[in-house]
Structure formats: structure tokens, C-alpha cells
Design brief:
Number of strands: 5
Oligomer: single chain
Largest sheet: 3 strands, antiparallel
Strand content: 5-15%
């Protein structure tokens, strides 16, 4: 249920005198969702994760696209051959492929910031070339889009739940056999790690905002604040030495 609809229902109940007298409608009206906190993967943990993921070819390429291009998992799932430009080393993002109880559907970016040409890293380029080589010729059309890159054995696009559960199982299996466990990993944490790593390398915030498709520069700057805390001591010492 959306917050707007909830407010309408509660306001009507308040007018009809159906609410408990101790209930404060204003507390709901002014309630703001607290965004979840994501922790970026450390370099050594990333090395371990990628080493394990190489054994799972059905998800390894998607991991690389999230980790080295910062794509949302819906953007990865919606990629098709028309949106990959090997000549200019870019990936054209103008939609996401999502799924609900009714089935698959295409969602276009809510703001123009979501429409962008993401630079294709060398690792991502090699991954996409591998996808081209293994193309089966199967094709499904969804809201006018077809030739999707990542399909399951039935020729249907992968689901977000599949990626989340597969990553969770990979980490779970690793942690059973090692004393130093890997942290929780999700597709969004991979994207968050990509952004954090570039922020730590002092990439121009506006350029990073464009690559990430953030609707507000404040979202990107918050990543800078998070990244700077981890290296504050080292950076300060280098500046005052």
C-alpha cells in the first residue's frame, strides 16, 4: 500500500471518528521512510567473491555489470543487443525490465537522469562478448523490447529474486568452509560498491551522478561522505605531513 493511499484512508477514519483518541495522524503524514544502509564490499572480499562467482557462469556476467558499470539489476535484466555499443564502449540505458504478479513489464526511468550512456569497462565488455557467443537465438518480446541478453533455460528473462537468492547461496556456501566469512551481498550492494570505489578515487561527483543515474546530486554526495570516513585518517595524515 502506498503512503499516499494510507494517508487518505487514515484521514477518512479520523473524520469519521473511528480512530483511537491516542492516535496521532500527523505522525503518519510526516513520516519519512528511512533509506536502508548498505555497506560496500572491501577489495579483498570482492576478490574472493569474484573467484567463487566464476564457477557460476549463469550469474557471473551479471555480477560484473553491476560491479564494473554500476547498473541496477533491472537495467541488467533489460539489456538487449541494440543497447550495447562496442565501438564506443558504452551501454545505452533507457529502461528497466521488472516483474510483478501479473508478469514481466518494461519501466522507463522516472527522471531524465535515469537515461544515460554508461561507459563500458574492459571487464564488462569482455563479459558482454561472452554473452553474444552463447546466444541461443531464443527471443521473447515484452512491451516492444526483445533480444534480451540474459535468459533462463526456458527463454524467459531472469528474475530479481533469482539473482538475490543465488548470491545469498554463494556466500552461504563459502562461509561454511571458511573462518573469515564474507558479508551479505545483493545486486544493489554490488552497485553500491561500484559507486563507493569511484567516490574513494575522487571521481567528479557530477560525472558519478550521471553514470549512476541518480536523480539528485545529494544521493551521490552521501556516498562521498560514506567513502571519506573510511579513509579520513590516512587522507588527513597525507595532507598535514
Amino acid at each position: 500500500m502506498s503512503r499516499k493511499l494510507l494517508c487518505v484512508i487514515l484521514k477518512t477514519a479520523e473524520m469519521e471518528d473511528l480512530l483511537n483518541l491516542n492516535f496521532s495522524f500527523n505522525s503518519i503524514v510526516h513520516f519519512q521512510r528511512v533509506p536502508p544502509k548498505y555497506v560496500a564490499y572491501k577489495k579483498e572480499d570482492l576478490r574472493k567473491l569474484l573467484e567463487i562467482a566464476k564457477r557460476h557462469d549463469n550469474i557471473y556476467l551479471e555480477i560484473l555489470l553491476c560491479l564494473f558499470c554500476g547498473l541496477r539489476i533491472g537495467e541488467v535484466r533489460g539489456l538487449n543487443f541494440d543497447h550495447v555499443d562496442f565501438e564506443n564502449h558504452t551501454i545505452n540505458i533507457d529502461h528497466q525490465l521488472l516483474r510483478n504478479q501479473e508478469g514481466y513489464y518494461i519501466e522507463t526511468p522516472k527522471t531524465k537522469c535515469g537515461i544515460r550512456k554508461v561507459p563500458m569497462s574492459e571487464e564488462a565488455g569482455k563479459a558482454l562478448q561472452r554473452v553474444l557467443k552463447r546466444k541461443t537465438g531464443k527471443s521473447i518480446q515484452i512491451d516492444g523490447y526483445r533480444n534480451f541478453l540474459f535468459l533462463n533455460q526456458k527463454g524467459m528473462p531472469m528474475t530479481a529474486c533469482y539473482y538475490t537468492s543465488t548470491l545469498r547461496n554463494i556466500v552461504k556456501k563459502y562461509n561454511k568452509c571458511h573462518d573469515e566469512p564474507l558479508p551479505k551481498i545483493t545486486p544493489h550492494i554490488l552497485r553500491h560498491t561500484f559507486c563507493t570505489r569511484l567516490a574513494q578515487k575522487n571521481m567528479n561527483p557530477k560525472n558519478l551522478q550521471y553514470i549512476m543515474g541518480h536523480s539528485s546530486i545529494m544521493i551521490t554526495l552521501n556516498l562521498y561522505a560514506h567513502a571519506s570516513q573510511t579513509g579520513a585518517n590516512m587522507e588527513m595524515r597525507s595532507l598535514i605531513a
